[in-house]
C-alpha cells in the first residue's frame, strides 16, 4: 500500500444546523475533510459553500447535482479522495451523532493495521430511538449469518475508516447499495474478500439537529432485500469456506 494519507469524507443532505460543529471537530483532529453535498436544498448548500470558503483549502466541497443517497454520496467521496491522493477515508455522518473527538483513536488503530476497516461499535446514550436500536439487532444477526462470523460488531455505524485500494476494487467489480443499505453491504462484501475488520467502541448520540433521513418503510424494505442477496451470496461461497476450514469463531 502507498504511503498513509487520510481524508475525512462527510456525506451531507440538509444538515445545515449540525454540519458546522462537525467540521470544527474534524479540523480540530488535525485532518482535512471533503464535504459531499448530496443534493441538499438552498439553505444547506449555502452553509456548505460558506464552510468551504472559510476553511479552504482544508475543507473541500464536492456537490452532487441530485440526491444519490448516503451510499452514493460516500462512493462519490471515495472516488474524489482517491483522486486527491488519499490512501484511506474516514467516513463520519453529518448529523452530529458521532464524536469527532474519537477520530484520533480511529486513526491510531488504522495506522497500526492499515489494511483493515476500522469500524465504530456504538456506545449509545439515552437519546437512541428504541425502535432503531432493536431493529439493528436483526441486522446484526443477518450479518453474523452472512459472514459466518462475529467479526463485525455493528454493520450500520457510519463512523469508520476504509483502506481505499480494496474499496475501489470492490466497487468496480460489484454493485453496492447506494442508500441506507450501503454501510452494511460494503463491510460484508469487504469481509468476504478477506479485508480484516477491527471494532472500536465509540459514543453515539441521536442526532444534534433532529434530522434523520432513515425512511422506516422504504429503507427497511431495501435492507431486507439486501440481506436476502447477501444470504444467497454466502451460500455460493459456503462450499469454498468449508473446504478451507473456515468456521464461526467463538
TrEMBL record:
Signal peptide: none
CDD domains: DPM_DPG-synthase_like
Gene3D superfamilies from the UniProt entry: Spore Coat Polysaccharide Biosynthesis Protein SpsA, Chain A
Stretches assigned to the Glycosyltransferase 2-like domain: 8-144
Pfam families to which the protein is assigned, alphabetical: Glycos_transf_2
Keywords annotated in UniProt: Transferase
GO molecular function: transferase activity
One GO BP annotation of this record: protein N-linked glycosylation
PANTHER family assigned to the protein according to its UniProt record, in alphabetical order: DOLICHYL-PHOSPHATE BETA-GLUCOSYLTRANSFERASE, GLYCOSYL TRANSFERASE
The name this protein goes by in its record: Glycosyltransferase involved in cell wall bisynthesis
Lineage: Bacteria, Pseudomonadati, Pseudomonadota, Gammaproteobacteria, Lysobacterales
